[in-house]
Specification:
Elements: H1 2-14, H2 16-19, E1 28-34, E2 42-48, E3 62-63, E4 71-76, E5 82-87, E6 94-99, H3 106-115, E7 133-138, E8 144-149, E9 163-168, E10 173-176, E11 185-189, E12 195-200, E13 216-221, E14 229-232, E15 236-242, E16 245-251, E17 257-267, E18 270-278, E19 285-290, E20 298-304, E21 312-317, E22 326-329, E23 340-345, E24 351-357, E25 369-372, E26 380-385, E27 388-392, E28 398-402, E29 407-411, E30 419-422, E31 426-431, E32 438-443, E33 455-460, E34 471-474, E35 483-487, E36 493-498, E37 505-510, E38 514-521, E39 529-534, E40 541-545, E41 556-560, E42 568-571, E43 579-584, E44 590-595, E45 616-621, E46 628-629, E47 637-643
Parallel strand pairs: 1-26
Antiparallel strand pairs: 1-47, 2-3, 2-24, 4-5, 5-6, 7-8, 8-9, 9-10, 11-12, 12-13, 13-14, 15-16, 16-17, 17-18, 19-20, 20-21, 21-22, 23-24, 25-26, 27-28, 28-29, 29-30, 31-32, 32-33, 33-34, 35-36, 36-37, 37-38, 39-40, 40-41, 41-42, 43-44, 44-45, 45-46
């Protein structure tokens, strides 16, 4: 009954815009990449808080989650005997609750988790539609679950769908606490349960920031979202130490992320900050703070310190009895060469939790292919691959993808492991329609200027798929950033982009002999036309372009006939937005693409490094109607492709391990340069 009630209420919440989205008129399988995600293998761990002086004991660390899928952003239940967390098991993100071993039972519990089959867990929110569910917490009586979800579309493009909801667990009744057409991130419930604080870009929405969302902290009633007030300007990731104290992070003018403490006052009109004090000094980054009434005077933070390549958890003693704050390491003595994220402290003050990669080193080997729950399972399946620019062979049996560097081929069911057929830097991939085993790609630096030496090549796997039969034929001449080849369905031509005129425009050349067999220009102008894809019916070429604002950094998807007529724009996420990597559906009536159309779904600093902290997979009809969101997460999804062959999730070897280890990077814009001025170096990748 509770499940049915929750679904009914969500239907009422979402309305026709999402649930009544037109079904795709085609079928098949969509495969895409998520930057770094297949190499995370996160689990949630905890250490005792009391014995942190002077340092944590490595043998005391306990893994609190079961090693299934990816588990992160934990939060202890009010009684401290259960753990709330986000998990991506079963192909979608949901919230789960698991028992926590009693203090002192760490060793036996750790062994049990590592050798015994974990008991199956049921999601706390078993309703559709597919959406992100993140940053959970419970009210003190344990009856209401408060979290972020992307279930309801924003009212306009490039506005975040992230909003705070509460669900009454006994009944399943769900209420949106965030105001309409407003985004909220990182909610935290006050110790009394009366108030919830969140980070919000405010009424102006997301401005496209890739490093800092520039949020303010708002506070509202947990019961119904009323009395929403701006409490703290310029802050993110709020947490309550008690009913009158909020900690949060802020990126200061000196370049460092720092943790602040705000003393607040509660009036009939809402909550406002009476004083704000910086807790962490310049010279290192400190962010995502966590506090608990059970640990007065202690704040757990994630840090990036000079001389360290890793994000670690520390506890700060900010009690008034000390003349200056004291810092105690939590994770570096336990796992010095692993990134640790988003700490949280139990309500009784006994433990500090966090998530990191499980296993030795920085984690386990990643999945090669991973099933993602499709919003239209009767029409297409959805998979993530551990690689970039994937494409299916036209018999549906193989997938080509790149590793930046390296060009690889794998069976589409994940069997047999991946085979490297080229060791240099290649991007992207597309298969010839007529010649079996021929893959088009471009070799050279990716995302480079017009004059960079990049050429289109045809890689032939030969008749017997043996490495000795592989041959590579260069198709372009001059190397003026020739890239993104896509063959025509009749096998005669290849469309590609080139910077030979000084601008990136589209050209069509002979499929077998390249430029030597004939070439003509398709588009012309002082802008960038790129990422082209030829429709299966031969009628259209879709591409990404900034021609609406040349050089402005904004890309939209356009279509043109191969003879150069019929140019039109299909979809654009708004001024400043990016909509890229179009790929036609098997019936040529729909495009799959990646875009910031739904803005960003979480604070970027709470995640590992992504090239951009936004990008989801969407489909759209070629007339621009029927935009549909396929993925919901806080990662960077991109480079989708579509095959008419339907891969059943159960037929794909999801447990197949690819080579390599879980070796990802922290946010590039947190890199630290040991300069005298103490400022960080580098921006996002």
């Amino acid at each position: 009954m509770a499940r049915r009630t929750a679904l009914l209420l969500l239907v009422l919440l979402v309305g026709p815009l999402l649930l009544a989205a037109p079904a795709c008129s085609t079928s098949g399988t969509i495969v895409f990449t998520t930057l770094g995600r297949s190499r995370y293998a996160f689990d949630i761990f905890a250490l005792p808080l009391a014995p942190l002086y002077p340092a944590a004991n490595p043998s005391a660390e306990v893994r609190l989650t079961d090693g299934a899928s990816v588990n992160y952003n934990g939060h202890f239940a009010p009684s401290s005997d259960s753990l709330l967390f986000v998990s991506e098991r079963n192909g979608t993100l949901n919230l789960y609750m698991a028992p926590v071993p009693a203090p002192g039972a760490g060793a036996s519990r750790r062994e049990e988790l590592e050798v015994a089959a974990p008991a199956p867990l049921s999601p706390l929110l078993p309703w559709d539609p597919i959406a992100l569910k993140d940053r959970p917490s419970l009210t003190p009586d344990g009856s209401y679950l408060v979290y972020v979800s992307t279930a309801v579309p924003a009212e306009s493009p490039r506005r975040s769908w992230a909003a705070v909801y509460s669900t009454h667990l006994p009944s399943g009744s769900t209420r949106r606490l965030t105001a309409p057409d407003v985004a909220d991130f990182s909610p935290a419930v006050s110790p009394s349960g009366d108030w919830t604080a969140s980070a919000s870009p405010g009424p102006d929405g997301w401005g496209g920031e890739v490093e800092d969302l520039n949020t303010d902290i708002y506070v509202f009633r947990t019961s119904d979202g009323s009395q929403r007030t701006l409490a703290i300007r310029d802050g993110g990731w709020p947490c309550w130490a008690d009913e009158t104290t909020i900690f949060f992070h802020r990126r200061d003018s000196d370049g460092w992320y720092s943790v602040y403490r705000a003393e607040i006052s509660v009036t009939g009109a809402g909550v406002s900050a009476a004083s704000v004090e910086r807790i962490t000094p310049p010279g290192f980054h400190a962010f995502t703070p966590a506090a608990s009434p059970g640990a007065p005077g202690l704040v757990a933070v994630a840090t990036r310190r000079p001389g360290s390549d890793y994000r670690h958890i520390e506890v700060i003693d900010v009690s008034s009895s000390r003349s200056e704050n004291s810092y105690f390491e939590v994770t570096r003595p336990v796992a010095p060469r692993a990134h640790h994220f988003n700490p949280f402290i139990s309500p009784d003050g006994a433990r500090v939790g966090y998530h990191r990669c499980r296993g030795s080193g920085n984690g386990d080997s990643p999945l090669l292919l991973e099933n993602i729950k499709s919003p239209a399972p009767d029409t297409f399946s959805l998979f993530r691959i551990d690689g970039s620019f994937p494409s299916f062979s036209h018999d549906g049996k193989r997938i080509a993808f790149v590793g930046l560097p390296g060009l690889f081929v794998v069976n589409s069911d994940g069997s047999g492991g991946r085979r490297q057929i080229f060791s240099g830097n290649a991007f992207p991939t597309s298969w010839d329609w007529k010649r079996k085993g021929v893959i088009y790609t471009s070799v050279g630096p990716d995302f480079a200027s017009e004059s960079t030496k990049v050429d289109v090549v045809a890689v032939s796997l030969g008749d017997h798929d043996e490495d000795s039969n592989i041959s590579i034929k260069k198709l372009t001449v001059g190397g003026e950033n020739n890239a993104f080849p896509s063959p025509s369905p009749d096998g005669k031509w290849v469309v590609f982009r080139s910077g030979r005129s000084g601008h990136k425009n589209l050209y069509i050349m002979d499929a077998e002999d390249g430029e030597a067999g004939g070439i003509r220009r398709l588009t012309e102008g002082p802008w960038s036309d790129t990422m082209c894809n030829w429709s299966p019916d031969g009628e259209w070429i879709a591409f990404a372009s900034d021609r609406h604002n040349p050089g402005g950094g904004s890309f939209a998807i356009y279509m043109v006939h191969p003879n150069g007529t019929g140019l039109r724009r299909v979809v654009h996420s708004s001024d400043g937005g990016r909509t890229n990597h179009p790929w036609f559906s098997p019936d040529s009536k729909t495009l799959v693409f990646t875009s910031d159309y739904a803005a960003v779904s979480a604070e970027p600093i709470s995640n590992p490094h992504h090239y951009q902290p936004y990008g989801e997979i969407f489909t759209v009809n070629i007339d621009g109607s029927g935009i549909r969101r396929l993925t919901h997460n806080s990662f960077e999804d991109g480079t989708p492709s579509w095959t008419p062959y339907y891969l059943k999730p159960e037929d794909v070897g999801e447990t197949l391990q690819a080579s390599g280890t879980c070796a990802f990077e922290d946010c590039h814009w947190l890199n630290i340069d040991a300069q005298p001025d103490g400022l960080m170096c580098g921006k996002h990748g």
